[in-house]
Structures
1.
Amino acid sequence: MVSKDMLRLGRVRSAIRELFEFGRKRAAIVGDENIYDFSLGNPSVPPPAALTEEMVRLLSECDPSALHGYTSAPGSNETRDAIAENLNRRFHTSFTRRNLYITCGAAAALTSVLRALTVDSSTEFIAIAPYFPEYGCFAATAGGTLVVVPPDVKNFQIDFDALEERINIHTQGVIINSPNNPSGVIYSEATIQRLSDLLRKKSAEIGHDIYLISDEPYRELNYTDQPVPFVTDYYDASIISYSYSKSLSLPGDRIGYVLVGNAMPDFEDVYDAIAGSARVQGYVCAPSLLQKAITRAAELNLMPDLSSYRKNRDALYEGLSAFGYRCMPPDGAFYLFLEAPGGDGDAFAEAAKEEDILIVSGRSFGCPSFVRVAYCVAYDTIIRALPGFGRLYQKFCK
Ligand code: PLP
C-alpha cells in the first residue's frame, strides 16, 4: 500500500513537464531544430566561466575527503559566512552565518519553510496569482493549505483588497515571488511597503505574526535600473528562499538557501524549526562541492550575464506586440506572460502545439486567460518561431 497523495503527485506530471515531454516526442519526428520549446525555465546561458574554472580547480586541488565529506547540517560555516558577507556588501544588511540555512535549491528551501511554519491542518499560506504552481503541493504536503489571491491583471502587482479579504486567524504566511515567474514583473518598492504595512496591521489584529516568505530565485535577473526591494528592510518577519538555479545557471546542481531576517520575532524558534523541517525532509548538508562553488561565487560576487536574455526579451516582446499580442513588458526573470488571444490560455497553448510552439497555459499559475513564454532559449529559436506566433494570432483574432 502507498500514500494516495504521493502516488497522485508522482503520476500526474505538472503541465510544464507534460509539455516538455511532448516536445521531446515531437522532436524525434520533426527534428530538434523545428521545435520551438518555450516551456521550461532552464537557463540558456552557461554558468559564469569563473565559476566553472573554480569548480574544476576545486575538483583537481582539494583534498577529496574535505571536498566530498559531510558539512554541518545547515551548511559549512565558510559558505554561510561568504554568503552573509556578500549580502551585507550588496544590501547594507548585517547577516551572519546564523541567518542562513543552505538547501538543495529553492524547492527545498520552500518546503523546509512551509513545513516549519505549519502549526496544524488549519494553517493557511497565501500566494498571489500568478504564482509558481508547486506552491500548492508544497503547502499541502507540509500539512496546510494554499489560498490564492486573484491576479491584478492591470499591472501584476498585488490586489490588496483581495489579499486582505483572505487573511484570517489561520494565515501563517504570504508567499511572494519577485521578479515573478511567470509575469516577469518586479514588485515595486511601493508594493512591498504597502504589503508590509498590511501584514503588520493584520498580524496585530489576528494576534500572531504573519510571515512574509519571499521566493527569490530570479533576484539578479533584473533588466531595470531599480533594485529589487530587499524584504528584510521592510518587514521584520521576513524569510527569503533563494536559489542559484537561475542566477548562476545551476538548476541541476540543486543549491540555494533560506535566510531568516535578523529582526524576526522569535528568531531562534523560527530558524531552528526550519532546521528541523529540513532535517526530516532529508535536506541536511547540501552538496559539499556546490557549497564550495557558491562560496567562491559569493567571494567573487559572480553575477549572471543578462545580455542574451535581454536581447531575447526585446525581440520577443517587440515581435509579438507588432502582431497585436498584449502583455506587460517584462522587467525581470526570463518569462513573458501573454494575454491569450481569444481569452482561453488552454486553447491557445494547445493550438500553438500545431505550430510546434510549446508554451504553457496560465491556468496552473492561477491566470487561465494567459500563456507563459519562457524566453531562456537560443535567439534564433525566437526569430524562427515568430511567423508561427503571427499565424496563431490571425487564427484566434480573425
Ligand atoms: N520558485 C520559483 C518562482 C521558480 O520559478 C522555481 C523554478 O523554476 C523554483 C522556485 C524552484 O527553484 P529550484 O530549481 O531552485 O528548486
2.
Amino acid sequence: MKTVNVGICGLGTVGSGTCNVLQRNQREVQASARCDVKIVHVGARRDNAACNLEGIQVSRDIFEVVKNPEVNIVVELIGGTTVAKDLILQAIELGKHVVTANKALIAEHGNEIFAAAEQRNVCVAFEGAVAGGIPIIKVLRESLAANRIQWLAGIINGTGNFILTEMAQKGRAFDEVLAQAQELGYAEADPTFDIEGIDAAHKLGILASIAFGMPLRFDRIYTEGISKIEPQDLAYAKELGYRIKHLGIARRSGDKVEMRVHPTLIPEKRLIAHVDGVMNAIMVMGDAVGSTLYSGPGAGSEPTASAVVADVIDIARELALDCTPSVPHLGFGADYVSPITIQTMDELETSYYLRMSAWDRPGVLSEITQILSKQGISIEALIQKEPAEDQDIVPVILLTNRAVEGKMMQAIQQIEALVSIAGQVVSIRLEHLD
Ligand code: HSE
C-alpha cells in the first residue's frame, strides 16, 4: 500500500484536532484514502500537550514543513493572511497540494492562490474554511452540481450564534457570553471578526463563488454584525413569531448577485430558526432539488478537523490512484471576465422589522404609516406597547412587506425627523426563506 505524507503547519485548536483525528482514526482514513496517510512533519511555534508528536519531525520554522521533500500535502492551520499566504504560495510553487481552513485567506486572496495552483497543477482544498464540520463545499460542488443555485442563507458564525442564543434564551450579557466563546476556542483571534460579521462575510464570499461560479468578491459583501442587537428586539421578534439570527445571504437574479451578512428576523416555523448555540446551518435553494438544509457544529477543534481530514483523504486517494488532483471550480484564469455583477444594497428588496420610540400622542401612528405609504411600503404587522408608568414614550414595532432598501432608508430618515419620534429607528431585515 502506498503512503501519502502530510505536513501540518500550526498546532492550535484546529491543528491539534487534525493531528488527533488523523492518528486516532487511522484505520478509517486508510480505508477511505486507499493508502496510508502519515503525518511526517509538524511546524509550530510551540508543542501542544493535546497532541502526541512521537515519531513526527517537529520544526519551529513552519517553512521547513513546506520545504521537506517527503511532504506531499501541506496542511495550513496557522490562520492570518500574511505568513499563511506566503506559506501556501511557496507550497504550491514546490508542487505540493494544500489543505487549509483559512477562510480569511481564501476569501481575500483566493483568486490569486487558485490561479497559482492551477498553473502548477496542484490542489488547494478548503472544506474546513466554511461552517466547521458541515461539508457544505462538497455539497455545493458535487452533491448539488446538477442545480442552478438560486439562493443560500446560512448561520455561518458559531460564536455569533452562541451569543445570540444565550442572550435570547438565558438573558445573559453579551460580553460574558463572548468571553465563554473565546475560552471554548470558537472565537477568532480577533473576536471583532465574529461580532462584526467579517468572519461570516469571509465564509459567505466563498460559498457564493462556488454556488454561482464566480470569482471571489469579498470586497463587495455588505457586512453588519450583532453588536447592536438589544435583548428587547430578540423578545419582540419572538412575540411576532420570529427569531433573530445572524445570516449570510447570497442570491442570484439573472446575472446579478446580492451578498450580505446581517442580523435577520426569520419565521420560527423554519427549521433553521431553531439552530442554536455554536451550531451552524445553511439553507440552499436549487432549481432542481428545491430547498435543502445542512446543519452541524460550525467551529471547534475536532469538528473543523473532520472537514480538514476529509480534504486530506480526497487528495491522498487521488495520489494513491496516480491521478493528478485538480482544483475544481474556483480556478478562474487571469483574463476571465465574470458576467456576474454584484447588486448594491440600495437595490435590495426585503422586508423589515422597525422599532421606534414614539411620544404617546394622537396621530403618531398615522404620521408613521403615511411616510411608509408614500414610499410604497406596506405594513404587515404592528405592535404598540403601553407606556411604562410615569413615561410618555411608547415602543412601536412594525413589520413591513418587501420594500426596496433605498426607499426604506429614506422612510426611516423621515420617521426619525418627526417631532413625535424620540431617538433613532432600529431596523432589522426580515427574510421569509421560502
Ligand atoms: N470564529 C469562527 C466561528 C470559527 O465562531 O464560527 C469557525 O470558523
